[in-house]
Amino acid sequence: MFPTVALQRPHTEAWIVAAAELGALEKWVRTVAIPTLVTGAADVSNLPPQLDITTGHNDARQALLGAGHMPAADRATARISAAVSRASLVDLAPLPDSPRRDVLHAWIASLDDAQVLERVHRLAAGQVVALVGILAEAHQFAAAQGPGSRSTAGGR
Question: In this structure, are strands 6-8 and 15-17 parallel, antiparallel, or unpaired?
């Protein structure tokens, strides 16, 4: 279960998802507040969202170049999507040519969030080729784990 936390604005009584509101606040601080405080204007290059401003940096330019460009709200959305998608991939277990459920769990756990999302997006496109390819990946993983993992007991 992934609950949604929402805030009700008192003046409009509109309900706003907290993550979206915090994302907007983060963007304003990063693109308007800090640049204005530091340079006196907001019309400068934006700070990257993943720049750690809580610590000093020996080389500010290197820190800017090394910082990621995905805001926290987007990273959180991706993490939640990946968690839901992992559960969806386990649903492949009942298919006739699927590896055992424990092998599928281990294979899915070996994937990072981006890999999980990429596979689920391929499946969502409805391509039979995607399903065959994903099952082939799971079988390759099972083969690499050893002979006891290759069983295709229909996910049981």
Answer: antiparallel
